[in-house]
Design goal:
The protein has 748 residues and is an alpha/beta fold. Helix content is 40%, strand content 17%. Strand 23, helix 22 and strand 24 (650-655) form a beta-alpha-beta unit.
């Protein structure tokens, strides 16, 4: 039975061929055996059955701690782990540490408290993570180090990794294979000094590069520490640390960009021309390539990478990045899940070797890596099913040769400010915007504000300084963003408010949006269509009070729900403010603010989870049973559903959502979420790009209406939305090409 379950788990993982394989650092410690507007609601849709609270019994509980939601790689890993393990009957809880070792430790302690039996952890800092691993071991939890090795402890049961020595070696070999003559300028860049992988990658690269530095083929430009050690074939960890300290990118795009700019500013004429660049991963490779491409004295460059991120694959196709090392994350996830299943069953995972972490030799499995250039890109990434040919442009024009520095001339420059990299939606938007605009000959720069209005303002000022002509911005706080929009307007920059309206200013030229009133109305109509009798417990949840959309969604929902609250069909459980206003068909903004203040999730999974738990703890018996839940979006819907599903007094629940996130679509298929409102973001991005192109050309975008932002009526285009349930999920999301059937289990 265990073998059957393991097979099912691995098959489920193989079905998850998600889009991008990115990531900061993939891993490897030295192996022991090696040298180191309103739409009509769908009332006529067939009534859906209530979502039954799933049984609490599971085959085991796995806790997973990933390093950050700021890189698509880890967001995709979250989906792969969750869907594969849950589909095989295991309970799984996944937390993110956001590059903070203290948060990582707190996450591990939280998972221990929740009774996980196996912990899979990608440490932020391999040494600092030892204490967390020991806490897990002391609680009887098995520990799998995933993609990065936990060092200096005996509390690690297994290590799942790529061959990171080979990663660095393949990057370096590419540079060596393409170098001719002597004195070729070589720029060295590395990952984060806190990440053991950065050392392993560099070790692998140095072993290949050093002989060619010693014989004069390459001349190191940007590291005096490396120059001082250039005659040493093997470096100690301390010597590598000295070099990495000079050339660390910290796995960060902007850090890499700033370092490359500083290097070129300091470089002499002989340090330019035809240059060779060791970049540690794809994100930093793109940042560095963008800098070198704009220097008129750089005639050509070769730049390495790793992770085969979708954006970098497109860069390779377009001749802007030279190679990447493909690490098939599907294999790594498979290996980690297989190890977890073995440990849950009381067995030992199969090991192909071991890695010394400074205290013990940790049993390990090592996945292979593949160099990808324009020559083998299709075979390695498309034919293997990792990506679809539809994910890229220009595949038919692949050729060979050096990456020529692209011409600096472009048709216009667009700056884009998105709210956070912590949600897959915005990461995907980044890719869509960048690839579409760049392929059309426009220059684009995209920054993230990470939920901080001050950072948002600084981002806008940065883009103004860089000469953008059009600004596309999704404000964190619509009112606070007014000052940033006015700064752009004063600099002659046209402003497009994207997906969220900038309020209380006349400095907005255009608004691209979904019909947010219709979103809330469709969510509410679903609840109304499935309610029978009187006194049905109704739980209200909303988005962030700083986001104007939260008000519009709630306005749409209230317009449909209020008559059914007034006539007794629904009984509001969790908002005294809403109860006090339940006889008012229309609410002022201040009245909505009072309600939203009580039930705000801040668009955050954990906030929604905690609020739902508090609501159920305070609820009387009559507030449970068959319940109805207005959840503002899919992330909060899943959090709330998970809470209501575990309460024994909740016999069934209906819960709304929006965004048609892949994880929530799977929840709908599995009967754990009831509906979602599909907003085809592809359309929204297209509308924003069309508006930007029109403004760059001196024209005016086409508008289908307008939105009052408190000062002016902003011309707008409004994209439609669609209610999705189990009844129409295939038609709406698969047949439309938004998702592939292979992205899900249970569609049959």
């Amino acid at each position: 039975m265990k073998n059957v379950r393991l097979i099912l788990v691995l098959l489920a993982v193989l079905a998850l061929t998600a889009l991008v394989a990115c990531g900061g650092a993939a891993t490897t410690e030295t192996p022991a055996e090696q040298p180191e507007a309103t739409t009509e609601t769908t009332a006529e849709e067939p009534a859906a059955e209530a979502t039954e609270a799933p049984a609490a019994e599971v085959s085991g509980k796995v806790g997973i701690v990933l390093p950050t939601k700021d890189e698509p790689r880890w967001v995709q890993d979250e989906t792969r782990f969750r869907e594969a393990l849950e589909s095989a009957g295991y309970e799984v809880e996944i937390l993110f540490s956001q590059g903070d070792s203290a948060k990582e430790r707190a996450n591990v302690e939280d998972l221990i408290t929740k009774g996980v039996q196996v912990l899979i952890i990608t440490p932020h800092d391999g040494t600092a993570a030892a204490a967390a691993a020991e806490a897990a071991r002391d609680a009887g939890v098995k520990v799998i180090s995933y993609d990065r090795l936990i060092r200096d402890t005996d509390a690690v049961d297994y290590y799942v990794t790529f061959d990171s020595i080979a990663v660095g070696a393949q990057q370096a070999q590419f540079l060596v294979d393409n170098a001719e003559g002597e004195g070729n300028p070589l720029y060295l860049y590395a990952g984060a000094a806190s990440d053991n992988n950065a050392f392993i990658f560099f070790e692998g690269a140095w072993g290949v590069l050093q002989p060619k530095i010693a014989d004069g083929t390459f001349r190191i430009v940007n590291s005096s520490e490396a120059v001082a050690l250039q005659d040493k074939p093997e470096l100690t960890r301390e010597e590598m640390a000295a070099i990495i300290g000079q050339v660390s990118t910290n796995w960060d795009f902007n850090t890499a960009k700033n370092l490359a700019e500083a290097n070129l500013t300091a470089a002499a004429a002989e340090d330019k021309g035809d240059v060779f660049i060791l970049a540690p991963n794809d994100g930093t490779a793109r940042a560095i390539a963008d800098v070198f491409a704009t220097d008129g004295d750089v005639t050509s460059y070769l730049v390495t990478g790793q992770d085969a991120e979708q954006a970098s694959v497109q860069y390779i196709i377009d001749g802007k990045q030279s190679m990447t090392v493909f690490k098939d994350v599907r294999t790594l996830v498979n290996d980690a899940i297989a190890a977890a299943v073995a440990l849950l069953g009381g067995g030992a995972p199969e090991a192909s070797g071991s890695y010394n972490n400074g205290v013990i030799d940790v049993p390990a499995v090592q996945s292979p890596v593949v160099s990808v250039t324009r020559d083998n890109l299709v075979a390695a990434l498309i034919d293997s099913g990792y990506y679809s040919a539809d994910d890229f442009t220009g595949l038919d024009a692949l050729g060979t040769g050096e990456t020529e520095a692209p011409a600096a001339e472009v048709s216009g420059k667009v700056g884009i400010v998105l709210p956070t990299k912590d949600e897959p939606r915005w990461v995907q938007d980044e890719t869509r915007f960048r690839e579409a605009l760049e392929s059309a000959g426009y220059e684009v720069e995209i920054l993230f504000s990470q939920g901080d209005s001050a950072k948002e303002r600084a981002n806008v000022e940065d883009l103004i300084t860089k000469g953008v002509q059009v600004l596309i911005i999704t404000p964190h706080d619509g009112t606070a963003a007014a000052a940033a929009a006015e700064a752009a307007r004063d600099a002659g920059v046209k402003v497009i408010s994207y997906d969220r309206l900038i309020r209380d200013t006349d400095a907005v030229d255009y608004y691209v949006t979904f019909d947010s009133i219709a979103v809330g109305a469709q969510q509410a109509q679903f609840l109304v269509d499935n309610a029978e009798g009187e006194g049905n417990p109704l739980y209200l949840y909303a988005g962030a009070a700083s986001d104007n959309n939260a008000f519009i969604f709630f306005e749409g929902a209230w317009g449909v729900l209020q008559p059914k609250i007034a006539d007794g069909t629904f009984r509001i459980v969790n908002s005294s403010e809403a109860v006090a206003l339940q006889d008012k068909p229309e609410l002022t903004r201040e009245e909505m603010a009072a309600i939203i203040g009580q039930v705000s999730t801040n668009w955050d999974f954990n906030t929604a989870k905690n609020l739902a738990e508090a609501n159920l703890t305070a609820a009387a018996a009559e507030d449970k049973g068959d319940v109805f839940i207005l959840a503002p979006n899919d992330g909060t819907a899943r959090a709330i559903a998970d809470v209501f599903a575990t309460d024994g007094d909740v016999t069934s629940y209906l819960v709304t959502g929006q965004d048609a996130e892949q994880a929530s679509v799977q929840y709908i298929i599995d009967g754990k979420q009831s509906m979602t409102v599909f907003k085809d973001v592809r359309t929204l991005v297209n509308d924003a790009i069309a508006a930007a192109v029109a403004l760059l050309g001196g024209g005016a975008p086409e508008a289908s209406g307008s939105y009052n932002n408190g000062v002016i009526d902003v011309p707008a285009v409004q994209s439609p939305v669609v209610t999705v349930t189990r009844d129409n999920v295939v038609e709406a999301l698969i047949d439309s090409g938004y998702y592939s059937a292979d992205d899900f289990t249970g569609l049959d």
